[in-house]
Amino acid sequence: MTESTTVFESLRGGLIVSCQAYPGEPMRHAETMTQVAEAAVAGGAVGIRAQGLADIALIHERVRLPQIGLWKDGNDDVFITPTLRHALAVAEAGAEVVALDGTRRRRPDGLTLAETLTRLRTETNALIMADCGSLDDAMAAEQAGADCVGTTLSGYSGERPKLDGPDLELIEQIAGSLSVPVIAEGRIHTPAQAAAAKRAGAHAVVVGTAITHPTTITSWFTGALAD
User: Fold this and answer.
1) Is the pTM of this model over 0.90?
2) Would you say 197 and 177 are in contact if contact means Cβ atoms under 8 Å apart?
3) CA 188, CA 195: separation in Å to the nearest integer?
4) Using an 8 Å Cβ cutoff, are 69 and 56 in contact?
5) Structure confidence at residue 5 as a pLDDT band (50, 70, 90)
């Protein structure tokens, strides 16, 4: 059994919890995010998605689940692990899966997605997740060599509308068109939406904000009480 098969079989049908805090927030600390990841494991998560080299390294040390790592950097449209340098650093920090922008947009270092993935495979053993915004993105990412694709950027790359909930149509399109696993991610805020994403064909489901971002969750409640 290959490493890819082992990792993705362990994720099949399960919940990946995205443990991220935004810069300047009280929880923006590697120790805090690692504790959040440990709490997610206790709740039955099968994987963790984390941002930033310090967070990835500490979670890799303390959490024995596959980790999808990324590095958000820059103010350009492409900012999720935007260059080969970022991707190599994420792999070096300990992420079993490196998540990067998998859209067809120009990358800051001038490399194509295919060139980036080829170099990453040559220099590391990490698997690769392409965060996509459309079916065309996902098809191009699979052709470039991605091990899995995510719907992370649906509604953010200009090709599909930003919905209040998950883009179930896109999940279904990708699952029906590609042979690599599709990871549902983006605006999945309830257990019912997570289950719907799985029914649409998702190999696994990522939930972040609704589990790990108390500022946003609090605002949902305060907003409801203010109506």
Assistant:
1) yes
2) no
3) 10
4) yes
5) confident
